[in-house]
């Protein structure tokens, strides 16, 4: 490979600058615009709409946020199923808006933002979503913009059903909602249905189920339509139906059908809401004269009868003191009168053992003296046991 001099480099630069035309400048501007648009697109907010009176559900997929973290499968050749925890709150507020709720059963499950906005909740809601990777504790932040607008559909006929074998996280996915909606369409005999609200039974005062298979918290689903109720659904408002539900026996008017057994509704906990009829206003309070009616002279109650507190005094004071005194006497007898005494102990102890006990300190001093001094000048050890051994031998011979 040959090397170019500085003059040759300058000459090539001048030549290339002369060859640049308007097409090259347009290409450069286009590349810059695409790069800027791509950068803004990555950092753009997620914008969604939520009409008043209809159920809003936004699912936070773990797979989407998995790409925001370090690509371990590219570096190490491994694919991690990292547990992730979502934290959601309204921007500049510690909690979510009053109409919006968040749920996530486990760190390995997706999260859900759901709720039904009311007319007073119209406006722009900015939700901050924080994703925490529980394996390496990396974090990621995203913003969700929810524009709550006016009601799109009028649903004067609404019905609420209770699904006993479901949990709130299992009902919020769109596929499960479609299954439930199909069953209610067959019951309502219309396809013009929309979800109004989905609520967990725990939010209605239900009990927390046991953490065992076959126990569920239960879910209330509320749907609405502009079509009136079917004749089968109107049986819910009859006195015969309410009487059968109160007795707890077999329900004769249950005409609900479910393609999936876990989506079957509890017929006795179903409720109809007919909003097409005007609600009569509440009666106004009756304005009186402002003067209380005469109720007669005040007659105070008589004094209670006298009570003798001496039995109570005996039970609460004398009896505990007597028990304490008896326990003190027993303890004093055990501590003072049941002692053996030094003389009795020495009388029961052999003389050789007593001699060992009394000469321990003297023998220890003698050993220290022998260890500290010169062995040649130290006194020879005394035969302390010789007299006792001789005495024992004499007693044995006699």
Automatic annotation (TrEMBL):
Keywords on record: Membrane, Transmembrane, Transmembrane helix
Domain Sarcoglycan alpha/epsilon N-terminal, chain residue ranges per copy: 49-147
Pfam families hit by this protein: Sarcoglycan_2, Sarcoglycan_2_C
Gene Ontology cellular-component annotations: sarcoglycan complex
Every Sarcoglycan alpha/epsilon second domain range: 155-238
Ranges annotated as spanning the membrane: 24-42, 313-336
Protein origin, superkingdom: Eukaryota
Protein name: Alpha-sarcoglycan isoform X1
Taxonomy of the source species: Eukaryota, Metazoa, Chordata, Craniata, Vertebrata
């Amino acid at each position: 490979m040959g090397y170019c001099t500085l003059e040759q480099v300058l000459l090539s630069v001048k030549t290339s600058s002369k060859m640049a035309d308007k097409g090259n400048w347009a290409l450069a501007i286009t590349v810059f615009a695409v790069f800027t648009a791509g950068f803004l697109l990555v950092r753009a907010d997620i914008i969604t709409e939520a009409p008043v009176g209809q159920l809003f559900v936004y699912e936070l997929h773990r797979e989407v946020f998995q790409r925001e973290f370090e690509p371990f499968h590219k570096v190490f050749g491994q694919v991690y199923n990292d547990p992730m925890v979502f934290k959601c709150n309204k921007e500049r507020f510690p909690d979510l808006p009053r109409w919006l709720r968040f749920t996530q059963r486990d760190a390995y499950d997706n999260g859900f933002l759901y709720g039904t906005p009311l007319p007073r909740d119209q406006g722009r809601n900015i939700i901050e979503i924080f994703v925490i990777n529980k394996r390496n504790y990396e974090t990621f932040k995203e913003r969700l913009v929810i524009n709550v607008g006016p009601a799109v559909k009028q649903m004067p006929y609404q019905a609420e059903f209770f699904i006993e074998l479901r949990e709130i996280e299992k009902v919020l996915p769109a596929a499960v909602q479609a299954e439930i909606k199909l069953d209610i369409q067959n019951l309502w005999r219309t396809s013009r249905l929309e979800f109004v609200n989905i609520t967990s039974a725990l939010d209605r005062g239900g009990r927390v189920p046991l953490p065992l298979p076959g126990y569920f918290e239960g879910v209330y689903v509320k749907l609405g339509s502009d079509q009136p109720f079917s004749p089968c659904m109107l049986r819910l408002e009859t006195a015969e139906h309410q009487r059968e539900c109160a007795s707890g026996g077999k329900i004769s008017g249950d005409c609900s059908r479910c393609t999936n057994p876990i989506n079957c509704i509890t017929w006795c906990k179903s409720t109809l809401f007919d909003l097409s009829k005007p609600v009569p206003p509440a009666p106004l309070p009756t304005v009186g004269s402002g003067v209380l009616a005469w109720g007669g002279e005040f007659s105070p109650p008589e004094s209670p009868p006298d009570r003798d507190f001496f039995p109570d005094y005996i039970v609460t004071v004398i009896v505990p003191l007597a028990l304490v005194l008896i326990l003190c006497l027993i303890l004093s007898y055990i501590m003072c009168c049941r002692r053996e005494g030094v003389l009795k102990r020495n009388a029961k102890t052999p003389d050789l053992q007593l001699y060992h006990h009394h000469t321990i300190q003297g023998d220890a001093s003698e050993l220290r003296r022998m260890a500290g001094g010169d062995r040649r000048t130290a006194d020879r050890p005394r035969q302390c046991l010789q007299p006792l051994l001789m005495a024992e031998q004499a007693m044995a011979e006699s």
